[in-house]
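Review box. Two proteins, two foldings.
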Amino acid sequence: MAEMWINMGPQHPMTHGLWNLRVKVDGEVIVDAMPEIGYLHRGMEKIFENKNYTQIGPITDRLCYGSSITWNHLYCMTVENLIGVEVPERAKYIRVMAIEIQRIASHMMWLAAYAADIGLLAGFVLAMRDREIMVDLLQMLSGSRLTYNYSRIGGVAADLPPEFERDCLRAIDFFEKRIEEHETLYRDSKIFLMRSEGLGILSREDAINLGVTGPTLRASNVKYDVRKHNSYEVYDEMDFEVQCHSDCDVYGRYVVRMNEMRESCNIVRQALKKMPKGPVRVKTPMYAPEGDAIGRVEDPRGEGIMYVIGDGTDKPYRLKVRSPLFVTLSAAKKMLVGYKVADVVSIMGSIDVCMGETDK
């Protein structure tokens, strides 16, 4: 049978955003694959260069609406490194707590979308239901439910509401029980197991060589997490385990994310318990000095990096964004070749695609 190219996108439910996956097939078997991106490019980095440092903050939330607090925090931390500002200790704990709540909400959004991808519609409804638990907490912090703009250069927008600690601990305890309910649903689903176990294998060596990070890397049995290996804020004071899996397949990526949510619950509890009293923000200058700085975080999808160059004005000369998904998508060919066309949805859905941060 003659080989042929098939376009899965740019408007396809599998893509979870606007991009095109070209797959070359020989019958039903994939023999080549090529991701095509750029359909959602908004020129974010050029927009940053034409805004002052304060105005850029809310825009960074739009890099990925699934993990907006993470990107907002990364930007503030990068600029703080540039201007040499030390954030108050209480603000660091609040940031860590908020980021981990956001990580759970992001993983639950992935789980909901992935359940729908593979035909487990009950999983979609349940995951979106339980994601609301985390979104409610983030709304208490920021007043918003999607793009929060909570971090500020020099700290956070506001201190914790009076009843937040009580409500947060109750929510975390309740949510942990829900995780077990979700795992029962997937563990007992023959559909899910058939469409995840042994599919989309990305070996440890290939994952490292391609620069893959985040849950996809850790599911290839690489124990690397920016929170541990390049600790920022107060992560060095948190007791948590880096979650890995040795199967290197779609199922492994699912397991890593489910276990990461449990670890995030533990980190939130520790942050609330150890959080000191004090201010949550310091005053910062409008102008940044000449020089450059870098910031690195463990985004729910991998290692997010920002690099800023200051020229002594109130606007950055350059602000470069490193998207973890931009790199992970380059591994599409390694994960797809040799599998069937029907497996594409399951395999690509397992890496948690977000085109907003990829195309910028």
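Next protein.
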Amino acid sequence: MSTKPFFPCAGARALHAPTRRDFIYGLGASLGSVAFSALLAEEAKQLSTNTQAHFPGAKAKNVIFLMMEGGPSHIDTFDPKPKLEKLHLQEFTRDGKQKSAMETGKRYYVQSPFKFIKAGQSGADMADNWTHLAKVADDLCFFRGCTVDSVNHPTAMYQMNCGNRFGGDPGLGAWVNYGLGSSNRNLPGFVVLPEVSYPQGGAANWSNGYLPANFQGTPLRAKGSPILDLTPPAGVTKDQQRKNLDLMAKLNAAHAGQHPGHDELSARMNNYELAFRMQMQVPETLDLSKEDAKTKELYGIGKDSTDSFGRKCLLARKLIEKGVRFVQLYKGSWDSHDYIERAHGNLVRGVDQPIAALITDLKQRGLLESTLIVWCGEFGRTPDNGVRGGIAYGRDHNANAMTMWLAGGGCNAGHTIGATDELGMAAVEGKAHVRDFHVTLLRLLGLDDNKLTYYHAGRFKQLSQFGGTAIKKLIA
């Protein structure tokens, strides 16, 4: 079945220009026609976005998504639970009597090893090891009511990133670019900054799914050259590359004309053209050496604990400046079943300064208002843990309670929305499913989840799977 999109309403049609395949077949196989069609498609998308957005007053134009893979503990970061101090290392049994964990060898409650402070004029709750983020607390909107469906890492990652815990669906960045288009034809619209080891679930976390292949995320390598083969081989000039691409376009367009039901070839041709243009802009964009010393120091570049993530955050700012629509950064190893003080302590130390610097830098440049920043994991953690070879102060997976926060992009900064119970086991106020968070993210970008659809496998599909409700309190 063809995956050519259908439009259920005028609002959806206004956002989506004719497909690249339509342009290719309409213009024929003349030299350079593929590159020309790509330009026209992007220009049409930009024009429709500027005049026909679902919610024209939306402030967010770009997204920086900070994905803390492994499930950060809300109880040890932004959702303090004083009652756990009284229950520390005690187990609740069915008869209501408490026993020491050393007596039972089963499950026991674990207090947070971190002290909490009230940060900023908003009085936001933060563990006191977030020393840098505390300085920008009033720019943050905390949401404690989010719930998901799985405590399995890969399926929970898929649900947070793609809306479907079984994988195969488009990633958040793919949906956003499908709706808004790219504002820079020389760079991918959806860029991913993973670690050396990909997150659980792999590249499917930033897949195009059933959307056209050109909407997939472009991962940049964590070590070495961010993009392989970006520089032409020795002795190959730009003119030679251009002639080769034109010949390839002519041959591929003829082949595509014989197979009109497949968009993979047109996406590949577009990628060749994009790669050619990227050779001119990407090296300058990825080069951090020209940033001044003060900026590098702000992000913690050059310090062992913060250099890696600091570079990612600075690069995210540069990509947003260049018009990349959606940038996703990964920081793994938050799966702290054991020794949470040491594990979370090291992780917070590595991301605290870079994230605060990103917010500060965007704000100084007048970009925070139009850039939505999201910080979250795939689920939260439990207030209790099992004994593993003795007392190990960690936590297990929890799909019923987690904390995420937003900054910029028209979010309700300076507020904490929702609450969990006194132990942090479940959301009890402002409770909302992750699909509602996805609907809210799109709303902040001016997109309506019910109109941003794609016809596939016999029905119109959307990010939320079957609809959701925007969490209005998260929107200023």
